[in-house]
Amino acid sequence: MYHLSMENVEFAYGKNGILTLNNINIDIRNPQLISIIGPNGVGKSTLIHCMNKILEPTGGTVMVDESDVKNIKVKELAKKIGYVPYTSGDTFPLTVVDTILMGRNPHNKFRNNIKEDMAIVKEVLELMDIVPLALRPFNELSAGQHQRVMLARGLAQEPEILLLDEPTANLDIKHQLDVIRILKKLAVEKHIVVIMISHDLNLAAKYSDNVIMMAHGTVFAVGKPADVITKENIKEVYDVDSEVVMHGGRPLTILLDNEFTEEDAKLPEGASLEAKIFRKTGTAE
Amino acid sequence: MAELEISNVDDVEREYHSYISRKLLFIAVFVIACIVIIAISLSVNGLGLAPFEAFEYMIKHIFGTTYPYLSEEWYNDFILWESYVPRIAIAIICGCGLAICGVIMQGVLINPLADPYTTGVSDGASLGATVAIVTGFTYANVVGELGIVINAFIGAVVPAVIIIVLSTAIRMTPATTILVGVALSNVFGGLQTLVNYGADENALTEALRWGIGSFTQISWDSCVVPFIVTFAGGLLSFFLYKQLNLLSIGENSAKSLGLDVEKFKAFCLIVAAIMASALICYVGIIGFVGLLGPHLARMVLGGDNKYVLPASMLVGSFLLLLSDLISRVLIYPDELRVGLIMSVIGAPVFLYMIVRRKSSYGGVYRCSHPSEKTRQPQTKPRPCITPPRGERKCGSCCSRRRPCWDSSSPYSPARQVPFPLRTL
Asked: How close does chain A come to B166, measured CA to CA in Å?
């Protein structure tokens, strides 16, 4: 249980395409929150797509609980591995409840067990703070609300391993914290392996148990956040100068841009912004 | 639709069931609408029978009532049952069948514009029929009407097979699939023109007539194949609704929720192509049913295919029954072709739906702002104020044009004092 491993995994889009993933070797055991970090285009999404059979690796093997995913039926795999994409289709107007109920598909045969499913839907609606949206059409929601509904759908799937593609990308700072705390709680209390792609180094550093840093289609560094998120690694992988300080035992990254001078920051001549301002108390400030 | 807020998680299940009941009510309303239009359609018969009388004749015939040979009742029953009821039957069969094809193709290709016409199936059928009519060549060496039917069937299956092969071989996106369908339509259209070029006047007229669907020549015999195919396809589609729902959220998500996407898509496209071709080859080209049926159903019921499928079948049947009725009364005692009427009605209705869709497509409930819920204790649901025309949308919490402020709320614009403009 809770064992996901990748051995010498390679992947290329198209027959003679460039290798997007090259020689990936990962072994994940036991519930934890793992963040995959790295610049755009290094194969982070491709990596998690290979984990749950959305893409078939062109080389190597992906094993889940000692079975090759090639030999696991998609429905059986969906009971073990949940996936929350970066964006989800909303061509046809399903309600939020209907969308979350889809997460129950791997557990149902022909008919839905509506009573049991509804209990789970209600639980995740509350967990994700989206009860008022329950009967709203999914395609009318804002990007942040969309994201929370997709997360709720992933949770309704009740997987052993949950893969998330930038789950905090469209969220405001409060909901970013809410979501990542929930993910951490899932790992600790519900014993789920949570693997998420993140571009926020500080969120990844603060909440993750382990971090995978990727560069050029391979794993560049792996381990505890303090070992992986260092200014040397950030310079090497992102080509960005930074200062990494320890805060509460976790690395906190401050990006430096030494090329951006005070002269560059000067307000352009004539630039102005005017607005009528309202405060909730209605009193002038 | 009533606009309700759900503030308590315990209300979700109750409200969801009431939302489902509303869907069932809509379906029931359309069943009644279809019955009414059947009765009206039967009364346009030249026999001087009122709608209720004509309907009664039909029901009695179904339950086995017989009349004395050559009596007035026997004559009325005979004319209605042999001439008018088959038209109604084929209108219902085609309405259901084409609507199912529309739902399946739109679901599988994740594109609201997909139907037998945008995927080239209709033009393929049209080309096959034209070849039989103009040149007399049939693929199965059968002459006459059956030859046209077989040619049309094979012609319709060809583009579907091309799309299935291409979509699996090169992993086409839903948008590309539609583009391939449009390209195939144009190819078949061009070939049809080529076949027509130099054809004699009679053959050309017949080919042109076939291209505009009609129920004029329909008898009980020509209802058998369409009925069997539509019945089987309809039954099958009710086992596929969950998978179609999964596909609506995207192929990757569907796969991660346990759907074997490639196999399912190929299977559905074959089913839809067989259904569409079996209908088109008997009645000719009738456009817009596969688009309007599912879209009208989704506008009211939302996107859950469990309810969209039966509702689309009813809407499709209603539209074809209505078109058939109009085609018969407009220049009575002569009649127009039903495909023509359907296009004339369908195109503007579809355009209207596209314009309206933005604000109301699938909308059932409105909400309170989630973050506002925690800041503002409420004892009763706030009234929903419909904003005046042209007012801006709230955007932050729902599709109302104004924010959902209670007038007593401290957030209410009425209680807010504008500040003088400041330069930042």
From this structure: 15
Confirm if A151 and A179 have CB atoms less than 8 A apart.
yes
What is the rounded CA–CA span in Å between residue A40 and residue A239?
12
Cis peptide before A57 (omega within 30 of 0): no
How many Cβ atoms are within 10 Å of A262's Cβ, its own excluded? Answer: 6
- pTM to 2 decimal places: 0.81
Domain count within chain A: 1
Confidence band of A280 (pLDDT split at 50, 70, 90):
low
Identify the top-confidence range among A95-99, B262-266, B415-419: A95-99
CA distance B305 to chain A (A): 9
Domain ranges across chain B? 11-360, 375-424
Of A74, A94, A283, Cβ closest to residue B245: A94
Tell me the chain B residues in contact with residue A103 when contact means C-beta distances shorter than 8 Å. Answer: 257
CATH of the domain at A66: 3.40.50.300
Note whether residue A188 is domain-resident.
yes
At which residue do the structure tokens 């319709």 appear?
A: B156
Beta carbons of A179 and A171 less than 8 angstroms apart: yes
**What distance in Å separates the CA atoms of residue B41 and residue B83, rounded to the nearest whole number?**
12
Q: B 193-252 residues with CB below 8 A of A? A: 239, 242, 245-246, 248-250, 252
- ipTM for the predicted complex: 0.86
Q: Is residue A201 part of a domain?
A: yes
CATH class of segment(s) B11-360: mainly alpha
Question: How many CB atoms neighbour CB B50 within 10 A?
Answer: 12
Question: Is the four-CA dihedral A254, A260, A265, A271 of positive or negative sign?
Answer: negative
Domain boundaries, position A141: 3-224
The total of other beta-carbon atoms located within 10 Å of residue A206's CB is: 19
With a CB cutoff of 8 Å and minimum separation 6, the contacts of A2 are A28, A29, A30, A31, A65, A160, A161, A191, A193
Position with higher pLDDT, A237 vs B196? A237
Is A245 domain-assigned?
Answer: no
Query: Would A66 be classed as within a structural domain?
Result: yes
> Residue B75 has which token pair?
């004559």
Q: Is A268 on the interface with B (CB under 8 A)?
A: no
- For chain B, first and last CA: distance in Å? 45
Asked if B423's CB is within 8 angstroms of A274's CB, the reply is: yes
Q: What are phi and psi of B33, to 5 degrees?
A: -60, -40
Contact B256 A83 (CB under 8 A): yes
